[in-house]
Amino acid sequence: MRRRHTTTRLLAITALALPLILSAAPAPAAAPPAPTRQLSDVIPAPVETRPDARNAFRISPLTVIRTTPGSAAAMRIGRQLATTLRPATGYPLPVLAVRSTPLPEIALLIGGTDDRIGQQGYQLDVTRHRVTIRANNPAGLFAGTQTLRQLLPADIEAPDRQRTAWTVPGGHIVDHPRFDYRGAMLDLARHFHTVDEITAYVDLLSQYKINYLHLHLTDDQGWRIQIDSWPRLTTVGGGPGTGVDGVGPGYLTKADYQAIVAYAAARHITIIPEIDMPGHTNAAQSTYPELNCDGVAPPPRTDIAVGYSSLCINDELTYRFVEDVIRELAAITPGPFLHIGGDEAHATTDEDYRTFMNRVLPLVAKYGKRAYGWNEITQADTSADDVAQFWGTGTTNGSLVAAAARGTKVVMSPANKAYLDMKYDANTRLGLRWAGLIEVSDAYGWDPATRVTGIGEDAVLGVEAPLWSETLRTLDDIEHMAFPRLPAIAELGWSTSASHNWESFRTRLGEQAPRWRLQQVDFYPSPQVPWL
Ligand code: TNX
Predict the structure, then answer these.
(1) Per residue in 85-110, pLDDT tens?
(2) What does DSSP assign to residue 28?
(3) 338-356 per-position pLDDT tens digit
(4) What are the strands of the beta sheet with 64-67, ordered from one edge?
(5) Which residue blocks in 207-309 are alpha helix, DSSP H?
(6) What is the position in ligand 1's atom list of the atom closest to the CA of 434?
(7) Residue 508 neighbours by CB distance under 10 Å
(8) Within 6 Å (CB) of ligand 1, which residues are found?
(9) What sign for the dihedral angle of Cα 102, 108, 112, 116?
(10) Exposed site from 76, 147, 390, 463, fewest CB < 10 Å?
(11) Distance 348 CA to ligand 1 centre (A)
(12) Which residues pair with 106 in a beta bridge?
């Protein structure tokens, strides 16, 4: 279980001390104590690191965080960084939007970057006098601060003051992602997870430069998002007795959902809502009889079978329902994608499936979103705006290749590599094993651009690590399945294929353990990793 850092109330003190700090003499440039970390000890591995052993920066009581004047986003990221660094250092770390200071500084600057870093990248320079992070966009600046966090001693994650020398190794990093999309998915339908649990997961994801969180909001066992035009979806489908074994009740109000969207956005993570259809719909159909072809509501289900439910494909009411849901969800979703599921619709004929999806894909576009679905949606007429999520365990998929040829983009989530709900080994207490056992080396040991024959680098939008929650109830459970495999998928999404190296990865992974212990992350101590 992760204990949250309580926000330190240092701002008042900082304001009082500011004149004093600003009138202080320039910091002595004496050599700081040797850094405990090296510039390349980062997950995901940066594109280029040039260490400079003659330089290192020590965060001191005089250090200020300086941000580009006029950039509200840089100021916000500066404050977030200060909030991360204050508890363990005990330093005031004032955040100042000024052009220069005489003080030792961590400068967070928009613009003036190396050509290569693009929309999400950053560059980081560490000298004796300052740490400078530059990016073209706030997303890159935020990513750079996550790298800085990992370059500090693990004690930086401690909730209270530590007697550590806060030295950052000297040198230069140029870093940018291989893929635009690096996702995680959490299933709220099989067991509901609260706003606090979801935002705690967001905190962890953001440390590894994950930039999308897909929420699986509906399934046979539960409906977890408020829809005003069909109010019983949640009062019944999210009520007592819902979820696997009837012990996963709960739902997100629209206000809850919007709070998660905002919390994630402040960490440069975009929320993607999923409404699974035309199968995986028993929760809705058991609540509203009119959503069934025979007009009879089936009983609620709390088992983990799949493939038995289907919306009524040839009834206009079905499309009114679907449009209502899409419209209401699109209105509270600022991100570009809306996921319409589409997996395992075994109770829908192939012809009906195509009919259904060919009506629903344009509905998503009508409300200004890009349709996203499990790879089965490529059996319908997906366009270049749509995205298909590959979840197969094989290496071929004809309809996916045909869809990619018409421009549909692919997110790679091969179930036997990227599914965080698969057991690590036969003794794992949680999880399922239908796609196989997935040790850390399996989660790391594949390439998103060669996994499926005919789906090359250009067709791949990115990677995603789904976490289905049939067996998961608590945040501890989530953490145990996600860590350490989530960082493996994050590295596949961010780092170059040339840098892919299991020995390097497992060493860097082992170095994360002291941080996770301080953050109270219940990670699985895989025997494959040399844990510190
Ligand atoms: C298959 S993968 C499912 C989910 C289950 C998951 C369990 C996919 C698109 N559908 O309904 O939760 O397996 O691992």
Answers:
(1) 999 999 999 999 999 999 999 999 99
(2) P
(3) 999 999 999 999 999 999 9
(4) 48-58, 167-175, 122-126, 130-135, 105-110, 64-67, 95-96
(5) 232-237, 254-265, 282-287
(6) 14
(7) 21
(8) 306, 343-344, 374, 391, 415, 419, 421, 432, 468, 470
(9) positive
(10) 76
(11) 17
(12) 65, 131
Helix, strand and coil in the chain, % to nearest 5: 35, 15, 45
Helix, strand or coil for residue 130? strand
Cα separations in angstroms, 531 against 175, 495, 523: 26, 22, 11
Residue with tokens 């819902």: 242
323 belongs to the catalytic site: no
Residue 443 and residue 489 in contact, taking contact as beta carbons nearer than 8 Å = yes
Burial class (CB in 10 A: 0-12, 13-18, 19+), 383: middle
Q: Which two tokens stand for residue 514?
A: 């002291």
Please tell me the distance from the alpha carbon of residue 351 to that of residue 356, in angstroms, as a whole number.
Answer: 9
* Residue carrying the six token digits 């549909």: 408
pTM, rounded to two decimals: 0.95
Relative to the CA of 343, which ligand 1 atom is closest?
Answer: 9
On the question of pLDDT at 299 being above 70, the answer is: yes
* Cα 187 to ligand 1 centre (Å): 10
Cβ atoms within 10 Å of 441's Cβ, excluding its own: 14
- Strand ranges for 95-242 from DSSP E: 95-96, 105-110, 122-126, 130-135, 167-175, 181-187, 212-216, 218-219, 222-223
Query: Which among 218, 274, 343, 419 is the best mutation to test ligand 1's pocket, defined by most ligand atoms within 8 Å of the CB?
Result: 343
152/167 Cα distance (integer angstroms): 6
With beta carbons less than 8 A apart as the criterion, state whether 418 and 412 touch. yes
Long-range contacts of range 512-520, CB-CB < 8 Å, 24 or more positions apart? 512/43, 512/484, 512/487, 514/154, 514/155, 514/157, 515/150, 515/154, 515/157, 516/483, 518/154, 518/155, 518/157, 518/158, 518/159, 519/2, 519/157, 519/204, 520/1, 520/2, 520/3
Report which residue type is found at 209: K
**Is residue 275 within 8 Å of 339, Cβ to Cβ?**
yes
Contact present, 379 and 353 (Cβ < 8 Å): yes
Per-residue pLDDT at 2: 55
Integer Cα distance of 325 and 331 in angstroms: 10
**Closest ligand 1 atom number to CA of residue 419:** 14
Q: How confident is the model at residue 3 (pLDDT cuts 50, 70, 90)?
A: low
* Reported confidence tier of residue 10, pLDDT bands at 50, 70, 90: very low
Q: Which amino acid is at 255?
A: A
Q: pLDDT at residue 506 above 90? A: yes
Q: How far is the CA of 350 from the centre of ligand 1 (A)?
A: 19
Distance between Cα 468 and ligand 1 center (Å):
7
The answer to whether 197 and 475 have CB atoms below 8 angstroms apart is yes
Contacts of 49 (CB under 8 A, 6+ apart): 39, 40, 171, 172, 173
